[in-house]
Design a protein that fits this description.
Radius of gyration of chain B: 15 Å
Mean pLDDT of chain A: 94
Low-confidence stretches of chain A: none
Order of helices and strands of chain B: EEHHEEHEE
Strand order of the largest sheet of chain B: 1-2-3-4-6-5
Mean pLDDT of chain B: 87
CATH topology of chain B: Heat Shock Protein 90
Radius of gyration of chain A: 13 Å
Number of domains of chain B: 1
CATH architecture of chain B: 2-Layer Sandwich
Shape of chain A: globular
Number of helices of chain A: 4
Largest sheet of chain B: 6 strands, antiparallel
CATH topology of chain A: Transcription Regulator spoIIAA
Oligomer: heterodimer
CATH architecture of chain A: 2-Layer Sandwich
Structural class of chain A: alpha/beta
Distance between the termini of chain B: 29 Å
Structural class of chain B: alpha+beta
Strand content of chain A: 25-35%
Number of strands of chain A: 5
Largest sheet of chain A: 5 strands, mixed
CATH superfamily of chain A: STAS domain
CATH class of chain A: Alpha Beta
Strand content of chain B: 25-35%
Number of domains of chain A: 1
Number of strands of chain B: 6
Distance between the termini of chain A: 36 Å
Order of helices and strands of chain A: EEHEHEHEH
Strand order of the largest sheet of chain A: 1-2-3-4-5
Shape of chain B: globular
CATH class of chain B: Alpha Beta
Largest interface: A-B, 23 and 22 residues
CATH superfamily of chain B: Histidine kinase-like ATPase, C-terminal domain
Chain lengths: ~120, ~160
């Protein structure tokens, strides 16, 4: 599989630590399933840690957007953590940086959920 | 990942792969409509981009966009019909790297894709591939075939 997902819980926030590539196929499916499982488990505060994701394509960007919409529609909140330069560049080009709340520090991100 | 099955290589000129010259190098692939083909196009594009002398980030972007073009050809053009093929040609000249990807599908109007930067487009889960190609490559050309659609991605080497 091109991407791995590890799940942690920090002060009521579900943190999805992604590593690898979020691309068409396995990577984007793994992200979709991880977010779906988190919502099914009752999580409303989801933080996607992209520190170890250095490659994303348009399908992966679409999956991030789909995750954002799914969480929002479920009454929850989704934030992104620690973008690599490559991922950030694509979020800038596509203006998705204006959609997502992006944090560089995990403690700050968790605190932002609990404000 | 290596391509499986019906892969055909063609080369113009007499230069060997390991001694890529700076001009007139061309390689063509005919690939099945499968996701494995997308991987093949990506890795080949990255090799060409590196040979062209692009920096690592640019080479990675070119490879990603070639992957996007191939994925569009497989999924949207050929609709994953394994009887249809994806035709890819890489051309490295003194001036530019050109990647041409053609499918055998029913045709495609690139202007039909909604603007992904529009307020309603921002939250659409799809429709960013061609936008990224236009944003990152120096030239993007579409040509309707009969049948099929051909897209050509061009990155100039003038800055390298």
């Amino acid at each position: 599989m091109s991407m791995n997902v590890k799940i942690r819980h920090v002060e009521g926030v579900t943190v999805l630590d992604l590593s690898g590539k979020i691309t068409l196929g396995d990577g984007s499916i793994a992200l979709r399933e991880a977010v779906r499982d988190a919502l099914s488990a009752g999580s409303k505060k989801i933080l996607i840690n992209l520190a170890d994701v250095n490659y994303i394509d348009s399908a992966g960007l679409g999956e991030l957007v789909g995750s954002y919409t799914s969480v929002k529609n479920a009454g929850g909140e989704l934030k992104l953590l620690k973008l690599s330069k490559k991922v950030r560049d694509l979020l800038v080009i596509t203006k998705l940086l204006t959609v997502f709340d992006v944090k560089d520090d995990e403690k700050e991100a968790v605190a932002a959920f609990n404000k | 990942m290596a391509a499986k099955g019906n892969t055909c290589l063609a080369r113009r000129g007499s230069k060997e792969r390991d001694t890529l010259a700076d001009s007139d190098l061309q390689e063509s692939l005919i690939l099945p409509s499968a996701l494995e083909s997308v991987e093949t196009v990506e890795s080949k594009a990255e090799a060409f981009a590196q040979k062209a002398g692009f920096d690592e980030d640019t080479a990675s972007q070119i490879a990603m966009l070639a992957r996007e073009a191939a994925a569009n050809a497989v999924l949207h053009g050929n609709k994953s019909d394994r009887a249809k093929h994806v035709h890819v040609t890489f051309t490295l000249s003194q001036d530019a790297l050109s990647i041409r990807v053609a499918d055998e599908g029913a045709g495609f109007d690139p202007d039909s894709v909604p603007d992904p930067l529009s307020p309603e487009g921002l939250l659409r889960p799809s429709g960013r591939g061609i936008f990224l190609m236009r944003a990152i490559m120096d030239e993007v050309h579409f040509r309707q075939l009969s049948p099929g659609t051909e897209i050509t991605l061009v990155k100039h080497r003038t800055q390298n």
